[in-house]
Amino acid sequence: MTETPTPTRTDEPAVLVLEDGRRYEGRAYGARGRTLGEAVFATGMTGYQETLTDPSYAGQIVMMTAPHIGNTGMNDEDMESARIWVAGFVVRDPSRVVSNFRSQRSLDDDLEASGIVGISGIDTRAVTRHIRSAGAMRAGIFSGDAAQLTHGEQLELVLGGAEMTGLNLSGTVSTTESYTLPAEGDRVGSVAVLDLGVKTSTLRFLAERGFDVHVVPQSITADEVLALAPDALFFSNGPGDPGASDAHVELLRATLREGLPYFGICFGNQLLGRALGFGTYKLPFGHRGINQPVLDKATGRVEITAHNHGFAVDAPIDRVSESAEGFGRVEVSHYDLNDNVVEGLNCLDIPAFSVQYHPESAAGPHDANYLFDRFRDMVIASKETSA
């Protein structure tokens, strides 16, 4: 067992301010200063490192509902990207001792080194209940000199922050240069991955299914994708409002019309919905955590799944629909048992499907990991048909 030094405890004041004027006073945690973003809560009892480094959380102040955070420290192996993406971090009780055989440093160290302003020592249960009632909203964390601003000044800064609705963040999180991961084992073919905030585990699972994984920037055009001659296309997870990603929708429509097999996760599910002609809408407080029950309509099986989305596709879950964009019949393949939110789409006349949740979840659960096998099988079948 490796034990890292006890993180520094502080009594320096900090405050979480919501746009409706609610204030929660606590202690400074991580870097000092001020940060703005959308306040959301994540219900996972583990996996805080994967949450922090998931690009889908860009622009959001993430509050962990589990009360004790940081006990297993941080390491280089569990990073879902090259950096921490959250706008801010809210916890009730930071661990006073970091003890795990894989730990290389404390969470406190990484937050401070990455400039992530956080707050601890507040009643996260009370904040969660308020957000569940009032909805996700703009917020700010203020510590250090920023904690000395007046209540009115702090609230004014929060109200001046960007709203998530209408916000396009793909350019912030996407790679700027293409790169390739080689296939592992028996090669199936190649897949072009549009990086809208892709996670490391997603790329690994695709490579393990025999794909050469060509990761491309979100700014790529349909002609440039087709020039790569991939055997399939994949759209990743990512932050922001799918209603603000018209260029990605048009790219997807163009490649679907060329018959390219498609798989999308999270943001990629929302963009498939838009490409097929459905609308999207903002959820009151979203789904974030690793314990969401989802029904697979084809099998009747309930999967416990990992979620991180504040928007959803507006499609009927009780019948097969006709795509308004000419892509044939479409069915909702999965839906959330808590609120009937669409969690998956399956095209019946073209080789394309998507899910809203995360089958690649590195912190678990792994109930839906089989979807990568389904994608591989779909690509193989498509290649045999066109041969």
Polypeptide structure, described:
The chain has 387 residues and is an alpha/beta fold. It folds into 2 domains: 3-159, Glucose Oxidase, domain 1; 170-386, 3-Layer(aba) Sandwich (Rossmann fold), CATH 3.40.50. The chain contains 10 helices and 22 strands. Strands 12, 13, 14, 15, 16, 17, 18, 19, 20, 21 and 22 form an 11-stranded mixed beta sheet that branches. A hairpin with a 4-residue loop joins β17 and β18. α8 (246-257) crosses α9 (267-276). The longest helix is centred in the C-terminal third of the chain and has 17 residues, at 370-386. The chain starts with a strand and ends with a helix. Composed of two chains; the small (or glutamine) chain promotes the hydrolysis of glutamine to ammonia, which is used by the large (or ammonia) chain to synthesize carbamoyl phosphate. Tetramer of heterodimers (alpha,beta)4. Belongs to the CarA family. It holds the Pfam family CPSase_sm_chain. Pathway: Pyrimidine metabolism; UMP biosynthesis via de novo pathway; (S)-dihydroorotate from bicarbonate: step 1/3; Amino-acid biosynthesis; L-arginine biosynthesis; carbamoyl phosphate from bicarbonate: step 1/1.
